[in-house]
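Morning run. Coffee first, then this:
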Amino acid sequence: MKLLASDFFKSEDQAVAVEARAPQIAFPRHDHEFNELFVVLSGNGWHILNGAPHFITCGELFYVRAADQHEFADVDNLHLINVLYRLEAHTLKPAALNRLIEASEIPGARDCHWQITEDVIAKIRLVIADLECETKNADPFSHLMTESLFVQLCTTLYRNRFTADAASLPTAARFGHILRYLRHHHANEIDFDDVARRFGYSLRNFNRIFREATGTTPHNYLVKLRISAAMRALRHSDQSITTVALRCGFNDSNYFSYTFNHLTGMSPSEYRRLSQVDWTDRSHRPSREGREDRAVARLP
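And here it is:
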């Protein structure tokens, strides 16, 4: 499925459009005639980008190229802000814009997945609100204002990548660093008492804030990070299932297989045999009800 520019942009020379998804429903695999960036505001779900699954929740940022194929599945009250853009229609230095959008810490590489914090979301909400209003404005200079606001948005997102040390962050910014920490250390043994203390929360407040922000528990989030990493490893490596399980944070390969089956509806070996999982076909997967609680009942 291809999404057409004519369905979202008022004219061929319009460079930017804003599409809120509140909530984002499950949506089948598709590509576009335009690029997009989206920020997750709340909830959770699976975002499958070029076949690679990502369990996503609040504060995550993706840049999706026109040729990329992606889809959303198993969404749970997932709210997004989508900004659609066409660099070829920009008049304000599109090459410089491209450097902001394709930013990576590795020279020559493309990093399409980032984390931002709650305070940054608050900042960009205001910019995006102005941007959305300007895209509907008939003023002859509205296209310049639109492009200027888009540059401001991209620059703000670029500047606000994570610092290494969360101790100096304001409280409003810490939660995004917790999600980043869990993603980077999901294969290690995680002590949530220690995580809460490290980021300045009591365990009770940590659990409450986590559920309010993501719609799931810290344990559920961690197990889905591990399964997400395992799915990518099964797709792109020939490592044994036991090796994949251990490298993704599961100390017991039998428990890994049990959890994998509960969350995907198939065994790891079945998943590996498939060239690509059709996440939009729910017929081969069990219903959501009860899966998450059973899947995290005995985390390794």
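The first strand starts at residue 2 and ends at 3. Good start to the day.
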